[in-house]
Amino acid sequence: MKTLIKEFTKGIIKENPTFVLVLGLCPTLAVSVTVANGIGMGIAATFVLLGSSVIVSLIKDFIPGRIRIPCYIVIIATFVTIAEMSMKAYSPVLDRALGIYVPLIVVNCMVLGRAEAFACKNNLASSFFDGLGMGLGFTLALILISAIREFLGSGQLLGHTLIKGFEPIFVFGMPSGALLVIGLLLGFFNFLKNRKT
Amino acid sequence: MKEMIRYGLILALICAIAAGLLAGVNELTRGKIAAQAYAEEQAALKEVMPLAAKFTEVKSGDELLYYKALDNQDKIVGFIFKAGAKGYSSLVQTLAGIFPDGSISAIKVVSQNETPGLGMRITEKKFTGQFSGKDSLSLSGVQAITGATISSRAVMDSVKKKAAEVLELIKNEK
Questions:
Q1: Are B56 and B75 spatial neighbours (Cβ–Cβ below 8 Å)?
Q2: Chain A residue with Cα closest to B21
Q3: Residue A172: how many CA atoms within 13 Å on its side-chain side?
Q4: How many Å apart are CA B150 and CA B129, to the nearest integer?
Q5: DSSP conformation class of B113
Q6: Which residue from B18, B32, B115 is facing A74, i.e. has the nearest CB?
Q7: Where are the domains of chain A?
Q8: Per-block average pLDDT, block size 10, for chain A (197 residues)?
Q9: Which of A30, B7, B31, B45 is the most exposed place for a label (fewest CB within 10 A)?
């Protein structure tokens, strides 16, 4: 039980996919313009991560090592397509906001990375909690980045104007602003880590 | 050789299961997605031509030329067309409703991917609201957004150009 909790929590801080493993940065840079987009992308990625981790760990003995990558890709692509179709059917606004970045979860190195580095070597329960924790860590990282960018870039948070008369800094709404925010946050988390040791 | 066949079969099996699963999900969501697209289209049409009760498509072959907007007595109240032009960083598509006399009812930017905070402001009411009542061929009096001239121009020029085409087509309809 204790190890399961550890598998779950490691993805949130100690092995956070964005700030520590630095995986899946492309969608992070692109969709973190508003908090709503960040949450949507986080949920979609968590669903895919969870689904693919569980399936990969279930059939790991059945898949021959030499063709494991194409097998993982098919499994991941299936979950991505399910997520995309459901999003189109039930949340067309979010679907339009995230655009091409939902299908691109297929090639998100975070998802394949977890299948390759964790799910194919561990049992079902561990893989489930690893996927869930990593997904949650990714979602929280997206929320943090997009909150900073939405506030500085448009003066809003979740679409609500916070400070009247705040002059938005346009650059934070653009990809260059995302790089700035992610770079500074990475530096900050490294600073915290180094101080501890 | 034996290995190769085994690998191929395993991969084929996984793909077949995945395909079956996706076919099921597609069946479940297809109707819903089509309904969403239809509702969205009708809502957008209604937005640029609030006076109309229903809309019919006018096509030439498979290409959609424009929509006719009809009132409850099937009388034509106006026409709606989709105009598109390259903006600063994306294709800007605008839905515009015009009355038979050529003046604009309203416009709506339906698809764009311009710079957030600058070009993206072409979707705001402050910009699109200016079009209402203006002559679709000249658009005189419509102000471009400061700092987003190229995006604004894309909307204005594409609407002007397409309006001229559509007005030519509907000459005989009035």
A1: no
A2: A78
A3: 19
A4: 18
A5: -
A6: B18
A7: 2-196
A8: 82 82 82 86 91 90 87 92 90 82 84 87 89 92 91 80 76 86 90 83
A9: B31
Q: DSSP 3-state assignment of A51?
A: helix
For residue B41, which amino acid is it?
A: E
Tokens of B115: 């710079």
For residue A33, list chain B residues with Cβ-Cβ distance below 8 A.
Answer: 116
Complex ipTM over 0.90: no
Q: Using one digit for the tens of pLDDT, what is the confidence trace for B70-105?
A: 888 888 888 888 888 998 888 999 988 888 888 888
Stated length of chain B: 174
Torsional class of A174: left (φ above 0), alpha (ψ -120 to 50), beta (otherwise) = beta
Distance of alpha carbon B57 from alpha carbon B41, whole angstroms? 12
Closest-CA distance, B15 to chain A, in angstroms, reads 7
CA distance B169 to B153: 24
Q: What is the pLDDT of residue A76?
A: 92
pLDDT at B51 over 60: yes
Which residue in the block uniquely carries the two structure tokens 């034996």?
Answer: B2
Element (H or E) spanning B38, and its range?
A: helix B2-48
B29, B111, B123, B145: best to mutate for the A interface, most A CBs within 10 A: B29
